[in-house]
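TODO from last week: model YmaF family protein.
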Amino acid sequence: MAKIGKDDFVNGFVPRHNHGSVDYTGLSSNHVHQCLDVTSPPIQTQDGGHIHYTEGYVLFEDGHTHHYQAYSGPPIPVGNGMHVHYYDFHTTEDAGHSHHVKGVDHPAPGTK
C-alpha cells in the first residue's frame, strides 16, 4: 500500500485518515476556550461518503473546562484532491454555562 503524506492529493476515499482543528469556542460567561482537536478515523456512511467522531476537552480557562462529543458533517471537497468537514456542537455545561463550537477542520487527502 502506498504511503500518503500530508501534502499528497488523492481522488476518491482514503480509508485511514483523520483531521485536526484549532479553534475557539463561542463567547459565554465573558470568556472563550481554545479547542484543539483530532478526529477519529473515517466512519463510512450509507451514501458512500464518511463522517468523523470526536470527543475531548476544551483548554482550561476561567477556572474550569468543558467536555464535548460530536460528529462532523459529510466531506466537503476543497480542490486538489483534499477535503474538509464542517462541525457544529455545544460543550457540556460546567460552571453554569456551555459554549458553542463551529467551523471547518484542516484538509485531509481524498475527495469522498
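Done. The two ends are 19 Å apart (CA to CA).
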